[in-house]
Structures are given as structure tokens and as C-alpha cells.
Amino acid sequence: MGISALTPPPAQDIVETVLEFPDNRLLIDLCGEFDRNLAQVEHQMGVHILRRGNRLAVIGDKSSREQAAAVLRSLYARLESGRGVAAGDIDGAMRMGRPTGEAEGAEQIELFSTGMELRTRKKPIEPRTEAQKAYVANLFQNELGFGIGPAGTGKTYLAVAVGVTMFISGAVEKIILSRPAVEAGERLGFLPGDMKEKVDPYMQPLYDALNDFLPSKQVEKLLQEKRIEIAPLAFMRGRTLSNAFIVLDEAQNATTMQMKMFLTRLGEGSRMVITGDRTQVDLPRGTASGLADAERILKGVKGVTFNYFTSKDVVRHPLVGRIIEAYEADEAKA
């Protein structure tokens, strides 16, 4: 009996690939509660999956069948290594998984053995698309990296994860997270409280990312010790940031002068990441975005890398990717 409501292909077209999994306990984890993991693979890869004891039969056209089988094997290998399988991991496997062999029927894929896992105190983080994988590699290899693309593609999240990983390993002594305190098209008016209370609403996405990777009590302690700093871009003026992992988020809202100021804060032993979305500039009309200028001026400079993301790299709700594509298509008509 099938595990989902997908309509199987016509009888004359049915071809199946049978996979055997020796550890029934891991197979249960692979299938997920009420076989929802298998249902996700079925839905997104256009195949039909039948469970027969400790075997899974994957039914569909040759290409889809082989890719789905490769994804299932890679997820099982992940479970064998002691890691769990969640919906995001399945999505990542389907985005990253591709047959590596040229011979007919080659189904083994290169996925979780890429050395791209980021170790944080709360959970391991893995890139889920090829663009994310290249981005993470560049952040480890270069002093200055740019991540440019639409919302939801993991630009800031992965940058902070790399920063936490390097901090835990002792490669850097502190983490500095910053973003311009620019209102997103709204006038919020006077904000009560001291300076921290005034700027914290702008910094909240950075706090959210940190709390995903470190226990909240540890975050509080490191903030008090100033081994983690979260501050508006304006607070960076006059500083030299040494032995630190530095992230500037929402860089499209930095002016040209602010961007130059920030980039020249880079000190010995530090890494710097600039993230932004060119389509969401909230600067006053007529003010040039420092991100666009930096992209133009720094292309080709040794030690500086640029990674670009598209709607295909969105790792939030799948609808977010379709929304971005719809906006991009509408802009192309203009």
C-alpha cells in the first residue's frame, strides 16, 4: 500500500528501484512519523514509494527514481552516523543530492560527507543548497566575503553559524554583529528607553540567530563580557576590529560612506561578512546603496569573495521562493 495520495504512473510505465535497509530501527526514523518523511520525498521528487518490510520500492521514471533512491540512501547514511532527519534535512538532501557516477544506474550521491557541517553548541548546521555550500566554504577561506540575494536564503544565518563555529574552536576571540538602524519603509517614531532598548528592535534578527546556536544563558554571559557584540553600524566608527568574526547584515541599507567606514575597520586575525538584498533598500530616495558600490568597486580584489543567491536557495517556507519568483517576473516586465 502506498504511503501517500500520489497517483502511481500507468501500469505499463511502472519501473521500481528496491532499496534494502538492514537496521529496521533506523528505517523507522528514515520513514518518519506516519511515513511523513517518505511523503515529502514523494511529493517533491514526483515518485511513489512502497514500504515492504525492511525494503523501500521507489516507483517512477528513471531519472526521478534514481535521484529519490540516492536521497533515501544518503538520509539513511546520515542516521547511521548518529544524526537525525528533519524536514529541513530532507529538503537539503533533495537540493544537494545528485548522482556522482557516470555509469548507468549510478545512485550514490555526495552529500553529508562534504565536511560542511558547522558545529555549534546547540545543533549542527549544514548548507542545504549548492550556493550555500560555496558560501560557507568561502567564509572559511577568505578574510572578506559578501552574501547577496533575497530574503530567506540563509545569508545571515549561515554567516552567524560560521562565526559561532570559529569562536568555539578558538579561531577568533569575539563575534561582532551589526546592521544599519534603518526603518523598513515605516516611521516608528520615538522609541522609549536607554540606547540599548532603542536599537535592540533593529538587532533582533541577529539575537534570534545567536540563540539558535548557543544556550541563552551563555549568550547573555558573552554579551556581558563583550565577547559577543551586537550594535548598530554607526557604533563601528573609529574602531579597529581585531581577532573577531564580524557580520554586517542588511548592508543594502548602508550608505557608501558607511560601507567604506565599516570595511576599513577590519583588523588582524579577523574575518568579515557582508550580507544584503539589493531589492530591499530602505534608504531615502536618491541615496546610493553602499552594498551596490562595494560590489562594483571590490570585484576582483584579492581576498574578497562574492556569493549570490536566488529564489531557488530559499530555505524558509516553499511559498517564499514562489513569492520572490513572482516579484522578479513582474520586475522583468517593467
Topology:
Layout: E1 16-20, H1 24-31, H2 36-45, E2 48-52, E3 55-59, H3 62-80, H4 87-96, E4 118-119, E5 124-125, H5 130-141, E6 144-148, H6 155-169, E7 174-179, H7 195-213, H8 216-224, E8 228-232, E9 244-248, H9 256-263, E10 271-276, H10 290-298, E11 304-308, H11 318-333
Parallel strand pairs: 6-10, 6-11, 7-8, 7-9, 9-10
Antiparallel strand pairs: 1-3, 2-3, 4-5
Helix pairs in contact: 1-3, 2-4, 3-4, 5-6, 6-7, 9-10
Describe the structure.
- It is built from eleven helices and eleven strands.
- Helix content is 40%, strand content 15%.
- α2 packs parallel to α4 (87-96), α3 (62-80) crosses α4 (87-96) and α6 crosses α7.
- It is an alpha/beta fold.
- It has helices at 24-31, 36-45, 62-80, 87-96, 130-141, 155-169, 195-213, 216-224, 256-263, 290-298, 318-333, and strands at 16-20, 48-52, 55-59, 118-119, 124-125, 144-148, 174-179, 228-232, 244-248, 271-276, 304-308.
Query: How can the largest sheet be summarized?
Result: 6 strands, parallel
Shape, please?
globular
Order the strands across the largest sheet as they lie in space: 8-7-9-10-6-11
- Total DSSP E strands: 11
Q: What's the helical proportion of residues?
A: 40-55%
